[in-house]
C-alpha cells in the first residue's frame, strides 16, 4: 500500500465576527406539519455511539446498524416484511467501535461496514454470501480516527473511504482499486484538528456529478475545508470557510430548494450563541463566509437533513447534548426555515454519529433512530401527513 501526501497552498484560520441576534425563545413549542410517534425504546444495556440506516441484506428494506464503544460490537436490526425490526444480530471486534459507515467496499454488490475508533486500527467488516461478516484491517497502525465516510472519490465507480484524524493537519482517503483491494492512501491538508469528533462528509458540492469532501478544520473546528473532485479523479482544494464558533456536526444537502447542495451545521454553544447555520451554495459552487442563522436551544450536536413532512423539501433534525431533546426545523416554500418543533429524546450525551434518518417501517416516510452513551435505541416513526 502506498501513501501519497497531497500538497496544496497553506490553509490559514481567519477570525470571524459572530453575527447573532438577541435570543428570543418564542417558538419552542410551536407545532408544524412534522410529527412522530415514539415507539418503546429498544433496551440494549450497552452504550451505543453510532448508528446508520441502510438496506444491508438487499431485500429492499432499510435496516439499522449500531456500534457499541465499550462492548466492541456491531448490532444489526434487520427490518422484516411487516415493517418491524427483528431482534438484533451481532458480531464482535477486537477493538472498540466509535464511527461507522455502510457501503459496498469490494465490488460484490453487498453492503460492508467501515469501523473506526480514536485509539484503534481502521477496519472493514466485509459481508459474506451468507450474511455474516469477515473483519479485515484497512490500516495496521492506530491512526486516531475521528470520523469515516464512504463514497467514490476518484471517479472510477468504486467506493473509497475518507477518514478524519485526531491531532492531525490532514485527512486521509483510502482508494479501492478495480480489484477491490485498498492499495493507495492519499493525504490532504485541512488545518490542525484536536482530540474531539471531527465531522467529515462526502457529497457533490458543485453539481458536476462527482463526490467532494467537506471536513471540519482549524483549531476547535471554527472552519470548514472543502475539496472538490476533478474530472480526472483527483481531489483539489476548493474553499476554506470560517465559521462563527465551534462546529459539532454538519450535513451536505439542498436546504434552500434551488437544486444545489448547501451546508447545514450545528454551532454547539449555550444560548444565546447556540445556532443552526446554513451556508447556501451559489451558482459557481462556492459558499458565503456569512451563513444564515437560526436560533437553537442549548448545545445542538448531531444534525441530519431529510424531507420529514413529505412536501419535497429537505428539513433539519438536530440532537442537543445535555438535554433530552431533538429539534426539527421545517423548510418553507421560500427556502428558509420556520419555527422549531421539539420532541423528547431518551439520551442527553451525543456524538456526531448518534442520529440517523431513513424509512425503517416500510411506509416510505423518513423515520428517526437515536442512540446514546447511556444505552438503548430510540425509534421515532414518522406520522407526518
Describe the structure.
By secondary structure, this protein is mainly β. It has no helices and 29 strands. The chain has strands at residues 2-5, 36-38, 50-54, 63-68, 73-77, 89-92, 99-103, 112-116, 122-127, 133-139, 145-151, 160-165, 170-176, 182-189, 200-203, 212-217, 223-229, 235-242, 247-253, 262-267, 275-279, 292-295, 300-306, 315-320, 325-331, 337-344, 355-358, 367-371, 377-382. The strands form seven sheets. The protein has a five-stranded mixed sheet, with no helix packed on it.
Q: What global shape is seen?
A: globular
Counted by DSSP, the helix tally is 0
Strand percent estimate: 35-45%
Distance from N terminus to C terminus (CA atoms, Å) equals 52 Å
The low-confidence parts are 1-31
* Secondary-structure-derived class: mainly beta
**Rg, Å, rounded:** 20 Å
**What percent of residues adopt helix (DSSP H or I)?**
under 10%
Give the SSE order as H and E letters. EEEEEEEEEEEEEEEEEEEEEEEEEEEEE
Q: Give the mean pLDDT.
A: 84
